[in-house]
Amino acid sequence: MNALWQQLADAQLVIGPVPPPAKPGPAWYVAAMLGIAAWIAAIFLTLAIVVFFDGMHAIGIAGTLACAAGLVLLRHPNPFVTQLGLAASIAGQAGMFLGLGGWLHGHHVPAAIMAAVLIGPSLLTANAFYRIWCTGASLLLLTVSLDEWGALTVGIAAALVTAVFIVWPQVPRAYGYGAAIALIAIDAFSIFGLNTTLAAGYGGSILAGAALVYAAYTLLGTSRAAVYTALIACVAIPVNGLAAALLIVFIGFGCGAPLLLGLGVAACLGYLGHYYYDLSLTLLLKSAALTGTGVLLLLIRWTAFRKEPS
Amino acid sequence: MSPRAQILDWVERGHLSAAHIPQAFELAQVSPTAAQWRRFLSRLLLAAGTLLTGAGVIFFFAYNWSGLPRLARFGIVEALLLAAFAVTWFRGTAVPAGRAALFMAALMTGALFALIGQTYQLGADPWQLFALWALLILPWAFAARQPDLWLLSFLLAQIALGLRPWSGFNPTWILCLFSVATQTGWEFAAPLPRLGPRIVGTVAAVEMSILIVSQIFDRFHLLPTTGYLLWLAAVVVVFTRFRPDLMMVAAALLSAIIAIVSFCARGLHLINGENLGGAFLLAFVVIALSGAAAKWLQHLAKREPA
């Protein structure tokens, strides 16, 4: 990376010698394996907290302590200690949520409080998986707290993904990945008909579409791209999740994040499969929405890229 | 580390001001060029347009609109099929438009089968439709060497095998065998690019995990359990020694962790609610195993050529 540093130094963006290389983090598949394993361990730890402590208040206090202890452990470089920290902190968060539920009754207010509380721990650690988890869980809890209007949080998640990857690239990407996963999960909830109204679902699609148009305009820098994406976003409104998936694919390519690109493609295929079972529209209407969007995409390609070499 | 990641790392460590990120990105040319954008958008629009249009046509025939005469229904789907073939024929499978048209033809084949079954009530089971569909598009996948067609055929075969009643056989075991056989074939025939074999390998790992967990908690059979252990050993040996791909090893190790924890959970009677205190112990087992697996994978990664 000496050449890159020299380039930056020539442009007077940096001064001094090349900094020592950072310790490389684990590959994405190792991080994913560790994350899933920590999540499984957290389930067992939550079970242990529930069994050992009597009453929701005690569970809440134990959860808070476990979350704090986990955050301290997460600072340790040893992978075993980090795993323990991750599991303890996630289990602690579950305990806190249960405690809040017992204290306040119902699930709307505890979910809203937990959604706000989770922002704190994610700022206190540099662990990427923990940041992804906290961001995703916070957005999902916000969706739960808004109940039938929860699909509107699609807008917040879409804005967060766009902000992290395009507007403020200095913000760690883990927050953007967490928001992208939440974006897909919220849309999946809408498709399965959980906690949403049709209007909220369409509202979510419109907000994700707006983020898509902004991303296209910013990354490509032409108003023609914005007009085309606006057209696509309008037609994609009835196809729940499509605008969000396209936004993720778009940002994934434009910002050099192949994992995000893969996530968007997988989400797109998943939505299409589940769209078949969406009971809010007849198959005829769904067919019209899909064919209309598909033909529009092909027409745009034909218009915009007719003269492109293959 | 990519130049983009390097710049962001320097920003995070305070060697470069966040205000200079746009200039640094421009100097390092980390953003896609106009030509790369055009190529990407052209392919994205083509792929998404083809997929959505094809799915729309399938949804339309699934609606079974009684107002549309039988002849018109067959006319629409056959005309689309012929049009897709014509585009493939004239453009060839070397260009994206030709490949997209062939994929559309594969989707229309399924729509045609569904329409035949819907109209003539042949008495065939749904799994037969999927099996026939998978088999018929297989030669096209062979001829065009098109990974998306391979994956479509694999998915359809999985659905067919999953829907088919298997008397005396564990259906998950059948699915596992099929996925492993497909992955093996793909690894030998076209190991690069890795995306296709990795997708099939991940499906195999998920199915193998479901199989072993069901063996542990439900009914134990020697053959599937032995098969699982052999698969585990084969994945670790093949993908560490002969065809280095640590992602496949990570998937197998995660499956092994799930198997070991399930085995311990059964031993501790955790699932029956008799020994919930054992949950604490199990959490530590998962942490220890995953930590060890990560250390080993990182050790292997250091040995791998860059």
Give the DSSP E fraction of chain A (strand runs of 2 or more residues). under 5%
In N-to-C order, the SSE pattern of chain B is HHHHHHHHHHHH
Low-confidence stretches of chain B: none
Number of helices of chain A: 14
The largest sheet of chain B, given as strand count, sense and whether it forms a barrel, is: none
Q: What is the number of beta strands of chain A?
A: 0
Query: What is the averaged pLDDT score of chain B?
Result: 89
Q: What is the ordering of alpha helices and beta strands of chain A?
A: HHHHHHHHHHHHHH
- Sum up the overall morphology of chain A in one term: flat
Please tally the β strands of chain B and state the result. 0
Specify the overall morphology of chain B: flat
Could you tell me the mean pLDDT of chain A?
87
| Number of continuous helical runs of chain B | 12
Query: Could you tell me the radius of gyration of chain B in angstroms?
Result: 25 Å
Polypeptide structure, described:
The complex is a heterodimer of chains A (310) and B (306). With 310 residues, chain A is mainly α. Helix content of chain A is 75%, strand content 0%. Chain A has 14 helices and no strands. Chain A has helices at residues 2-10, 28-52, 56-73, 79-104, 108-117, 119-123, 128-145, 153-167, 173-191, 198-220, 223-235, 242-254, 258-275, 283-304. Chain B has helices at 3-12, 21-28, 34-63, 70-91, 96-120, 126-144, 147-163, 171-189, 195-217, 222-242, 246-267, 278-303. Chain B has 306 residues and is mostly helical. The N and C termini of chain B lie close together (11 Å). The chains are: A mainly alpha (310), B mainly alpha (306). At the A-B interface, helix 1, helix 2, helix 4, helix 12 and helix 13 of A face helix 1, helix 2, helix 3, helix 11 and helix 12 of B.
Q: What would the keywords be for this entry?
A:
heterodimer, A: 310 residues, mainly alpha, 14 helices, flat, B: 306 residues, 79% helix, 0% strand
